[in-house]
Design a protein that fits this description.
This protein has 1 helix and 9 strands. By secondary structure, the protein is mostly beta strands. The chain has a single domain, classed as Beta Barrel (Lipocalin), CATH 2.40.128.280. Strands 2-1-9-8-7-6-5-4-3 form a 9-stranded antiparallel β-sheet, with no helix packed on it. Strand 8 and strand 9 form a beta hairpin. The chain is globular.
């Protein structure tokens, strides 16, 4: 996964490739996985996909620490909406107001 942090006008301000961080989409659930964590999972979100956008809701990210940890996956709010830029058999690129996520399938 690659995270591009976006500025106010959509320009890329910084790029990072976090190791051991994965996003798994499963029907109506989005799982954030941390391979270094004790159980391998960090959190789960309700997922809505309408063909062009992915909306997430993290109902259990209640504390500031939990919300801050979401940034490790390029998520800067507990209810982000991402616009799908590329979706094919090997690549998913989606962007919110704050970040662009480039994911590969494996």
């Amino acid at each position: 996964m690659e995270i591009e942090q976006l500025g106010p006008s959509g320009e890329v301000q910084a790029t990072s490739t976090p190791r051991g961080r994965y996003i798994a989409f499963q029907l109506h659930v989005c799982q954030l996985r941390d391979s270094k964590g004790p159980l391998g999972n960090y959190g789960a979100a309700n997922l809505t996909f309408d063909g062009k956008r992915v909306s997430l809701e993290f109902p259990y990210a209640e504390t500031e620490y939990q919300t801050e940890r979401l940034t490790e996956w390029g998520i800067y709010t507990t209810t982000p909406t991402f616009t799908i830029e590329t979706l094919n058999g090997s690549t998913l690129v989606m962007a919110s107001d704050h970040a662009r996520l480039r994911c590969r399938r494996f």
